[in-house]
């Protein structure tokens, strides 16, 4: 009798175990899917944060590059301004254009057209340079002219040319002013 109370056939439990195993498998699969989904959501949030940080870094780098460009342009324009200013001082002092210094000047201000606009280029090469050439021409002509009223007239013309060049010298800063600002 004892054998009747405890059945020894293991297949007898199979109809009860199959749904339990299926339910347990479904729960484990659901848990794994939830876990993977949570991990993917976390990765997506981290990627979004990284993208925002990279965008902010790129924007900051763009601002730095723009400010660097402004600074470089300012320094180059300032160098051009100083070349022109110093050369005018030399011509005002010497009253003549030295060909070697003139060549150096022309080479040093060659990029002026790329760093400024047409108004600055026209002012430097048409007005200033023309006045420097005129002052130099009058000075050289005065040197070779004998004494007398003609020499006195040349001295007066030379003085007028010097005053005009000096006034252009003072105007140089106003012509360069729009290009000497770091602000946009």
Can you give a write-up of this model?
This protein has one domain (16-179). It is an all-alpha fold. Helix content is 84%, strand content 0%. Helix 2 runs antiparallel to helix 3 (99-108) and helix 2 (14-94) packs antiparallel against helix 6. It has 6 helices and no strands.
- Number of separate strands: 0
Mean pLDDT: 88
Specify the overall morphology: rod-shaped
- Structural class label: mainly alpha
How many helical elements?
6
Radius of gyration, whole Å: 44 Å
What's the helix and strand layout?
Blueprint: H1 2-5, H2 14-94, H3 99-108, H4 112-115, H5 118-144, H6 149-176
In a nutshell, what does this entry contain?
The chain has helices at residues 2-5, 14-94, 99-108, 112-115, 118-144, 149-176.
Task: Write out key terms for the chains shown.
mainly alpha
